[in-house]
Amino acid sequence: MASKSKQSRWWSVWPTAWGPMGAVAGEAGIHRVVLPHYQPDELAALLAWRHPKAEKSDGPFEALIEQSRAYFNGQDVLFDDIPVELPPAGAFAGIVLRACREIGWGRTMSYSQVAMKIGREDAARAVATALSKNPTPLVIPCHRVTYADGRPGGFSAEGGPALKQRMLAMERGGG
Q1: Selected residue with higher pLDDT from 2 and 152
Q2: In this structure, which CATH number among 1.10.260.40, 3.30.700.20, 3.40.50.300, 1.10.10.10 belongs to the domain 92-171?
Q3: What angle do CA 91, 80, 114 make, to 5 degrees?
């Protein structure tokens, strides 16, 4: 029986106006995004440790590097041309992440609005759970999903809800 080889992976860390950012990619696209929170050396060590078979390379990240720098400089960036490893299109998490990816700059949707958008009006909590496991924040803009009353809600990315609020404020022109 032939053994199935593992997919190649790469990682990179780069500076943005808000601090160092990093990502891991595979052949199908971005696998993980780490938003500005760590020092560059700490972030590089973290990515190398969590992905020991991945190679350091900026090559697969050129578009993400350029667009993330523009984003953290306050420019409207869509990230829709960045390939991302997503759960299957028919899986609940895949449906939620794809719907979230369509939320544009400066806009927000509530968890219940995302649930309605995907035809699952009763699934706001499940939407929140799926978004809490989003490995590619910013590219899949889960920071744009809030509580119905406008409060930011949770944010599992490094930096937590304070980073989410800062990102939303910047997109609204206030930060």
Answers
A1: 152
A2: 1.10.10.10
A3: 45
Q: Is 112 helix (H, G, I), strand (E, B) or coil?
A: helix
**Domain ranges (residues) in the chain:** 9-71, 92-171
Rounded distance, CA 139 to CA 34, Å?
Answer: 11
Neighbour-count burial of 37, counting CB atoms closer than 10 A to its CB (0-12 exposed, 13-18 middle, 19+ buried): middle
Residue 9 Cα to chain centre, angstroms = 17
Q: Within a 10 A sphere around the Cβ of 114, how many other Cβ atoms?
A: 25
List 138, 142, 163, 167, catalytic entry:
142
The pair of three-digit structure tokens given for residue 15, joined into one six-digit string: 């500076």
Q: Name the burial class of residue 142, with classes exposed (0-12), middle (13-18) and buried (19+) by CB atoms within 10 angstroms of its CB.
A: buried
Is 100 among the catalytic positions? no
For the whole model, what pTM was predicted?
Answer: 0.90
Q: What is the pLDDT of residue 5?
A: 46
Average pLDDT, the chain: 92
15-19, 59-63, 112-116, 129-133: which range is least confident on average?
A: 59-63
